[in-house]
Write a structure and sequence with these properties.
With 320 residues, the chain is α/β, with parallel strands linked by helices. Helices cover 26% and strands 29% of the residues. It has helices spanning 22-29, 33-41, 43-54, 57-60, 74-81, 95-109, 151-161, 183-189, 202-210; strands spanning 64-68, 86-91, 116-120, 133-137, 162-169, 172-180, 213-215, 227-233, 244-251, 256-269, 276-279, 291-302, 307-314. Strands 6, 7, 8, 10, 11 and 12 form a six-stranded antiparallel beta sheet that branches. Strand 4 (133-137), helix 7 and strand 5 form a beta-alpha-beta unit. The protein is elongated.
Length: 320
């Protein structure tokens, strides 16, 4: 599963080719520069990480830093410039071959300290050139926070390599749910299948309901409060904590209709001198994570102050 598809379940059923596994598909998709271009151009994402590292040089100076899923190596280079004595980046994608060229060019031409080592392989399998690291940095978040299950890999690195008292950047994340009025877009995305050039395509309409949509939502469409359904501490949580069921209670803000539930997250760098938040909600500047929309087959009519009760289950795909 990758962040390339615009739909959460897009690769959940059969992301395998004749000659490769779903893992091959996942890692090879990240070898394409276009995905990294999208993430790097997400200024909310990239500048928040940059500030978290540059504004805390007192934490990074003379430390050993591990970047899990280093991609182009941008976080490695931030850490090197912040004064780390050794930076290790790990990635299983072929993008790391380009990352080595990027790091070498910046060491030669921009004065980047020559302290970065890039290791290709799965974090679960590689052997690092050090026994312990002082700081782990990673941009592990996926759509709806947990899509891709990359946080599991960060936890493996934490348990295997993070020194006692070591830090994780970022270290907190909260998942939120609210509800939206979205009749026009629902009609465009769902009801359109009822009449496709004079033919009914109900089978595809069912698929459209099964797979949540990742898109940017106008904050004016939000018709309930937003409540946290899960908060995790990356310093202490376990993989089992990421398989969860959460009951929720939303309060309607207006007399309106609810066509869908909305999921998004905040990620927090609490170890920063001044805590930094990377938000992805509809009221903030859009990020490449956008928001996740779960459409209802039948809309809910609600009055101001009424409660909507529900339960959400989130778990990794067992096959992929």
């Amino acid at each position: 599963q990758t962040e390339a598809p615009s739909v959460i379940g897009a690769s959940s059923s059969a992301s395998t080719s004749k000659d490769g596994t779903s893992a091959d598909y996942y890692f090879n998709s990240y070898a394409h520069f276009g995905i990294h271009e999208e993430m790097l151009k997400d200024t909310v994402r990239t500048k928040t990480y940059m500030r978290a590292i540059y504004d805390n040089k007192h934490l990074f100076k003379d430390k050993v830093v591990l970047d899990v899923g280093c991609g182009t190596g941008i976080l490695c280079m931030f850490a090197a410039k912040a004064g780390a004595k050794q930076v290790i980046g790990v990635d299983c994608s072929d993008i790391i071959e380009q990352s080595r060229k990027i790091v070498a060019q910046n060491v030669a031409e921009t004065g980047l300290p020559d302290v970065i080592t890039l290791v290709k392989g799965k974090m679960e399998d590689v052997v690092l050139p050090v026994a312990q690291v002082d700081i782990i940095v990673s941009e592990w978040m996926g759509y709806f926070l947990f899509y891709e299950s990359m946080l599991d890999t960060v936890l493996v690195a934490r348990d295997k390599y993070l020194a006692p008292g070591g830090l994780v950047f970022p270290d907190k994340a909260t998942l939120y749910i609210s509800a939206i009025e979205d009749g026009d877009y629902k009609a465009e995305k769902m009801d359109w299948w009822d009449d496709v050039y004079g033919f009914k395509m109900s089978a595809l309409k069912e698929l459209a309901y099964v797979e949540p949509i990742v898109d940017c939502v106008d904050p004016r469409q939000v018709v309930t409060d937003a409540i946290p359904i899960l908060t995790i501490d990356v310093q202490t949580c376990t993989a089992a904590d990421l398989d969860f069921t959460a009951k929720f209670e939303l309060t309607s803000l207006y007399n309106d209709h609810v066509h869908a539930f909305l999921g998004y997250f905040d990620t927090v760098f609490t170890h920063s001198h001044k805590p930094l938040v990377l938000p992805t909600g509809p009221e903030h500047t859009n990020t490449h994570w956008k928001q996740t929309v779960f459409y209802l087959r039948d809309p809910i009519t609600c009055k101001e102050g009424e409660k909507i009760y529900g339960e959400l289950r989130c778990s990794p795909n067992k096959d992929n």
